[in-house]
Amino acid sequence: MLTDKVWNWCRAQQLLAPGDAVTVALSGGADSVALLHILLQLPLRVSAAHFNHHLRGAESDRDEAFCQELCAVWNVPLRCGGADVSALAQLWGTGVETAARKARYDFFGSSETIATAHHGDDNLETLLLHLTRGSALRGLGGIPPRRDNIIRPLLCANRREILEYLAAHQLPHVEDSTNAVPLCGRNRLRLDVIPALYRENPAAADAALATAGLLREDEALLEDLAHSLLRTAETAGGWRVTPLAEAPRPLRLRALRQLLEDAGARELSLRHLEAAERLLTAGPSSSLNLPGVILRRQYDLLCTAVKPAVSPLEPALLPLGGVLPLPDGWTLRCDGPHPHVPGPGLHLVLDTPPLVRSRRSGDRLHRSGGTKTVRALLIDKKIPAALRDAIPVLEVDGRLVAVWGVGADPAFLPRPGQRCYTINLYTKEGEVQIL
């Protein structure tokens, strides 16, 4: 029985215990409805939360209404929220899926246990997606049963078991029409590859779950060993180069990542870690400029330093369809006009070139819910104080249009298909900078 299987999994993974309070992330789809129904059969205090991404028009609103009706019938406390995720993706310069995940988990919060409906097939898809794109061991660990306050009680079940449970209990649910469209990599895996794997091995999801668990254990061990290596190398003022250079490469790269992240580095890639690794065999006085941190080699010592405050911006016009050089080798580039399509960058409807400058005392940005000071917005986004004067603020006729990486005045945001300009911020290495 699926209910017993899920409860045994939760107990074995220490996800839930009798009497615990848990909030189900309820989308209204088959998986989350099954999860809610199962947890209601267990000795738990269950509530639900629904987040409307406003990505599918009337269908998104239908999903929210369905969740409200379902929870009313089942007498489940429900908390609803939502955001224009497409607009957030533009403001943050991320993909829609990334923006949706961030907005959703921001809404759920960190003060309660949140149960999501990820199941065994989702874990299998994640493994395959990371494998096809290239991944270190951490990525091949799949979806963990717990991450902070997020738990996955259904990882022990596959999609077929969930659909059979829905049918057996005659449970209503809604369908996301985009799940059947093979537009993204995950959907193509779900529709084409996963069925082929099940034909090869009917227990493919169970095998992937077990494999991912073993790989997470391996990764945890390597992380612990890398931490011990760092402690061995640590000395007054930094870390001795020799122990790091002589360590096996898997430990060396992990130790360097831990060292840099502890010092405040952000969004480290394998390319960054390999550059840090080369510093171990570089000249006795070398340095490396990394996101958020400077790593220095001083003879047989590695040292880190937070990057000094970047230069503030002198007011200047950003040419429509042109480029504006910024201090420290950065560049602001404006492309267009072109019909609006969601994607990286800041998408704005502009008639005149915006003035680009640093923040000023008293700056306020119009938002959908009113206005808020730029200072408060930068704090909300946890942008370090040392970087705040280098954040481009865009202004037209004395009115703030946008603050890079923070938000834009809704009056300047395009509708789907409306002609607009796309603005991106580039580092001196030519990389798009996402704050």
Give structural notes.
With 435 residues, the chain is of the alpha+beta class. The protein has 3 domains: 212 residues, Rossmann fold (3-Layer(aba) Sandwich); 71 residues, Uridine Diphospho-n-acetylenolpyruvylglucosamine Reductase, domain 3; 111 residues, no CATH class. It is built from 13 helices and 22 strands. It has a 6-stranded mixed β-sheet, with helices on both faces. Helix 3 links the parallel strand 2 and strand 3. Helix 6 packs across helix 8, helix 6 packs across helix 9 and helix 9 crosses helix 11. The protein is globular, with a radius of gyration of 25 Å. The two termini are 47 Å apart. The model has no long low-confidence stretch (mean pLDDT 88).
Keywords:
435 residues, alpha+beta, Rossmann fold, Uridine Diphospho-n-acetylenolpyruvylglucosamine Reductase, domain 3, 3 domains, 6-stranded mixed sheet, 5-stranded antiparallel sheet, 13 helices, 22 strands, 39% helix
